[in-house]
Each structure stands twice: as structure tokens, then as C-alpha cells.
Write a structure and sequence with these properties.
With 373 residues, the protein is of the alpha/beta class. It contains 12 helices and 16 strands. A 5-stranded mixed β-sheet has the order 6-5-4-7-11. Strands 14-13-12-15-16 form a 5-stranded mixed β-sheet. Helix 9 runs parallel beside helix 10. The longest helix is centred in the last third of the chain and has 29 residues. The relative contact order is 0.12.
Length: 373
């Protein structure tokens, strides 16, 4: 049987205090003790030390109606801890620095040839070194990478965009970065941006789908990324939705990625223009709308599998088609008509106005990891 000493319990309670204050911003010692489920004395010891260290500050008194001692309101110093998020792309590196509330305080992009591993590593080190000098409160660095990434061992098994295979990125950076480091697939990192969304359903799990030149998915539960044993959980882009569709590089026909990715849409547009299929402007608009309806049906076909198998409380769609009413209507109609009623009724479908930031998601991963037990 495992035992936990007082030092471990103290550290866990300290992290719970930080997590609660990050989420709710303000509270009192009494309310904090009740919410976390520990004694008032324990909370007072933790909070008093945090106040002394400048991590928590007392901001006023909460008036009480009737008898009783007034409650002193406390809140987290949002700049006491910071995080760096990095997203590696084929043409450069994006970075974001956030405070502990995940509000961005610095952003940037530097060009580099993504296929050149040595140049990428040198630039990552340069970025981190520079940011640590400017923001010494940083508690860690998150790095998002396109491809199949073993997050436990820090190995990029395969990245088509970068041309990397079996690259031990954490080993390459371990002597160059002085703060804790987290690596993950870039879509997984972006999915963590949903941690701060909140919704009335109170859902604890989300499935995030990102449609770009390719299609990726990620499943998260209470801030934890589910990777799967082969680090490919959420690979929705290679669900076949049309048995008679075009051949995909994975060997199947009619994969979602092959049919509705941004690249597929651009190829379809090019084909229609080169073959003179448009005719009038009115005909062009009708054909594009019909294509978006088809895309909605294809995506709906794949999402039924997600709803039935993973049963997430929320599905978040990052797509270049989100602002098209025909796409949204087609998708929702298909789900309403074909998904099982109970799981569909319990799943919130959210269409993002703007794509989640991969570098912000990488910084989020650092904060979530820092405040875990």
C-alpha cells in the first residue's frame, strides 16, 4: 500500500490552492478551505506563506450581513508564474508567453527551415534563453510538434511536415533548456485552449478537431490529453467516410482528410476553374454551397463515431468552413438524424470563430502540469 508523507500532502494542497485561484480568481481563506476540503489551519499556513512570497495578495474585505468576522478576499498574483509555449512549423517557430491566468503577454514568430533539425534546436534554445531573461518567473516550456509524438519520452516518431523520424527532441534540448519541458503533438497542444472556455453543461471532456491542410483530432479530459498506446488517439482524419472516394496515402479510400481538408477544397476549386465548370457567378455560388453541404455530411459521419465511442461532453470544430451556414446546417442535421439520441443530446457542438493557438496551447500544458498533484 502506498503512503503519502506530510511533505507530499502539503505540496498537493499548495497546488490545489493555485489551481482553485487560477480558475475562480478571488476567494477567502474560509471558502478556499471548504472548496478544497482541508482544515482552515492548513489553508492559513499555505496562504500566509504565499502572501509572504508575493504569490497571493490580499485585496480587500468581503462584507458580511449580520454577525461574524469579515472575510479577507485573496487573489493570485497572475505574474507570479509564467509559461512559454512554442509551436514548430515547417517554415518557422511561433512562441507565446503567458501569465498564470493564461493571458498572453508576449508573442512572436521567427522563420527557420523546419526540416533542418539542428537549426530548429538552436532557434528554440535562442528563443527560450531570451524569454527567460525577460521573464524569470517562467516555470516551464511547452513545445508543439506536427506528427506522431511520444510525449513521455520526448520522441518525434514521424512528422511529415518536418521530415523528422525517430528524433529525440527532448534529448537534443535537455542541456540547452534550464526549466521543465513538455513536448506534444501540436493539435493536442491546441486542444488544451478549450480548458478556459467553460460552458453551461459543465462538461469535463472535449474532442477537438482541426481542419487545415490536413485534419487532426485530440481528446482531453479534465485538462489531460489522452494519447493512446501508439500516440495516435484522435486520428479522425483517417476515418473513411466514402468507400468509393479517392485513395489516401494511408491506403484507404475516402478518408476524411482526403475529402474535406483545406488542401482538398483548394484542389476542387482549381479543378472547377480549369475545366470551366463554373458558368455564371450564381452557378459558382450554388456549387460551392453544395460542396460545403457535402463537407458537413462527411464530417458528421466521422463525428458520429466520436460521439458514440468517446462520448465527449463537447466537440470543438476548428475549420475554415465554420462561417458558412450551409456547412454548419448540413453537419448538425446529419448528426440529429443519424446519431444516437441520448449521447448526441448530451454533446455540445461548438464552432470556433478563430483557430486555437498551438503556442498558447503549449503554454497551457505547462500551467496545467505545474498545478497538478
Amino acid at each position: 500500500m502506498r503512503t503519502r508523507g506530510p511533505g507530499v500532502l502539503r505540496e498537493q494542497n499548495q497546488k490545489k490552492v493555485l489551481s482553485f485561484l487560477r480558475k475562480y480568481r478571488q476567494t477567502s481563506r474560509k471558502d478556499l478551505a471548504k472548496a478544497i476540503g482541508v482544515s482552515k489551519n492548513t489553508i492559513s499556513l499555505i496562504v500566509d506563506q504565499y502572501v509572504k512570497d508575493g504569490i497571493i495578495k490580499e485585496v480587500g474585505v468581503k462584507d458580511l450581513k449580520g454577525a461574524g468576522r469579515p472575510k479577507i478576499v485573496i487573489e493570485l498574483n497572475q505574474n507570479a508564474f509564467k509559461a512559454i509555449g512554442i509551436a514548430i512549423h515547417h517554415n518557422g517557430i511561433k512562441y507565446t508567453v503567458t501569465d498564470f491566468f493564461l493571458d498572453p503577454i508576449a508573442r512572436g514568430f521567427l522563420e527557420v527551415e523546419g526540416k533542418d533539425k539542428e537549426k530548429v534546436i538552436r532557434l528554440v534554445q535562442k528563443i527560450v534563453d531570451s524569454l527567460l531573461l525577460e521573464h524569470p518567473e517562467v516555470v516551464g516550456v511547452g513545445i508543439g510538434i506536427p506528427g506522431i509524438v511520444n510525449a513521455d519520452e520526448g520522441i518525434v516518431y514521424h512528422s511529415t511536415n518536418l521530415g523528422w523520424k525517430n528524433f529525440k527532441i527532448c534529448e537534443a534540448l535537455k542541456d540547452k533548456i534550464t526549466v521543465p519541458m513538455i513536448v506534444q503533438n501540436n493539435v493536442n497542444m491546441a486542444s488544451l485552449c478549450s480548458d478556459g472556455m467553460g460552458d453551461e453543461s459543465g462538461s469535463k471532456s472535449s474532442f477537438y478537431i482541426r481542419i487545415g491542410d490536413g485534419i487532426g483530432g485530440a481528446f482531453t479530459s479534465e485538462g489531460h490529453i489522452w494519447n493512446g498506446d501508439s500516440w495516435t488517439l484522435g486520428e479522425i482524419g483517417h476515418i473513411s467516410v466514402d468507400a468509393n472516394g479517392p485513395l489516401c496515402g494511408c491506403g484507404q479510400r475516402g478518408c476524411l482528410e482526403k475529402l474535406i481538408s483545406r488542401k482538398a477544397f483548394q484542389e476542387w476549386m482549381g479543378h472547377m476553374e480549369s475545366t470551366g465548370m463554373w458558368g455564371s457567378v450564381e452557378v459558382k455560388e450554388k456549387q460551392i454551397e453544395a460542396q460545403f453541404k457535402k463537407y458537413g455530411m462527411y464530417l458528421g459521419t466521422s463525428l458520429i463515431n466520436i460521439i458514440h465511442l468517446l462520448n465527449p461532453g463537447r466537440i470543438i470544430i476548428d475549420s475554415p468552413y465554420n462561417r458558412n451556414e450551409a456547412f454548419q446546417h448540413s453537419l448538425m442535421t446529419f448528426l440529429e438524424q443519424n446519431a444516437l439520441k441520448i449521447p448526441f443530446s448530451k454533446t455540445l457542438i461548438h464552432f470556433n470563430d478563430e483557430p486555437f493557438s498551438q503556442s498558447l496551447g503549449a503554454a497551457t500544458a505547462v500551467v496545467l502540469d505545474f498545478e497538478r498533484e
